[in-house]
Amino acid sequence: MPESSSSFSAESYFATQPPPPGLEHDIEGVKEFVRRQQEKGRNIVLVTSGGTTVPLELNVAYGQLRPSVRFLDNFSAGTRGATSAEYFLKAGYAVLFMHRQFSLQPFSRHYSHSTNPFLDFLEIEPGVEERSSFTASGAGSKGSQICVTLDKRETLLEVLTVYKAVHAAGTLHTLTFVTVNDYLWLLRAVSQELSVMKRKAMYYLAAAVSDFFLPRQKMAKHKIQSGKGSLHIEMDQVPKILKPMVDNWTGKDGFVVSFKLETDPALLIPKAETSLQRYGHQVVIGNDLNRRKFEVVFISWKDALPSSSIDTADSSSSFAESWLRIDPYDHNKEIEEDIVAELVKRHEMWIAGGTTSIKP
Ligand code: PAZ
Fold first, then answer.
1. Is the pTM of the predicted complex or chain greater than 0.90?
2. Which atom of ligand 1 is nearest to the CA of 206?
3. Of 64, 112, 302, 310, which has the fewest CB atoms closer than 10 Å, so is most exposed?
4. Measuring from atom 19 of ligand 1, which residue has the nearest CA?
5. Cβ atoms within 10 Å of 154's Cβ, excluding its own
């Protein structure tokens, strides 16, 4: 049971909140994926991506829990996760991509329906017999061909070639979550499966996870009715799962990278340092909501890095701070390319056993 009405430990959370229905099936798929990658000697990275929802009411129909009418959401389009996944694949990693249903995914993200709808760069070439009498209503009739607008061809070919190669190699496996409950159960089970990879596993936790939730026991059974004036909901705190993840689920060997998102720049470094101190993992990447596309800061243990890669290190502190910045006006450059390159370098050192894992 919860320790108090508003605080759950990870243990009490999993003892009282039910697992999502597809969990066992998902884990079978992960087991098989991990086995294949192990055989090939590849490193695996788990990338979490997108925001979690917190349903405010239950909707049980036909014996199954279905999406509720009202829920709280966490901000994230899934750009960081989907983009990073592509760069990890390029670096030779196998990727377990655990993302919010319908958020951006590697490769297809380039053709998002809102920013670059794919129908806009397809053209219809009428068939021979229709050329003289082509109308909108005749589109798609006998002999018509679809082709890609000339100026989009090169980029599409590049994306498609890598996408097909990744599929053929079987190095990308996708899992979805919607609610914070789905996310927590899936994260625990996937981390436990990945722990067999020992140091060759990286955990890249870019998803935006809710800090508050409504336990199943406190949720309204049906859609909350209006008519009683304002709505008051008291939410419980989501358990801090990084500690059990680092100490137990990953078997202490995994290279764990978490993200810290803030809107007050003054909080970014102190909160990232507190997180590292509290959970004892390897790296916290801090990002300011409004600058995240062109600036991030890596906070890690000072003794885990060569001094040349540290920007700021107060001699009395155990933490090292290094900033990554790109030109905000260069639309051909993605900061994830540099984030992933830096992490791959650090993960190699970690695998070679050249760094310390646990906080001093
Ligand atoms: O998905 P996106 O690119 O729009 O945003 C990425 C992000 C800001 C959600 C991610 O970089 C991040 O900081 N994730 C952790 C958020 C948190 O502190 O819960």
1. yes
2. 14
3. 64
4. 208
5. 9
Pocket test for ligand 1, best of 105, 261, 295 (most atoms within 8 A of CB): 261
What spacing in Å lies between the alpha carbon of 96 and ligand 1's midpoint?
Answer: 18
Q: Strands of 217-294 (E only): list them.
A: 236-237, 255-262, 283-288
The CATH 3.40.50.10300 domain(s) of the chain lie at: 1-110+157-253
What number does the ligand 1 atom closest to the CA of 207 have?
Answer: 14
49 neighbors 82 (Cβ within 8 angstroms): yes
| Tokens representing residue 356 in the block | 């310390």
Cα distance between residue 141 and residue 134, in whole Å: 10
Q: Which CATH number fits domain 1-110+157-253: 1.10.10.10, 3.90.180.10, 3.40.50.10300, 3.30.420.40?
A: 3.40.50.10300
Beta bridge partners of 51: 208
- 229-277, pLDDT tens digit by residue? 898 999 999 999 999 999 999 999 999 999 999 999 999 999 999 999 9
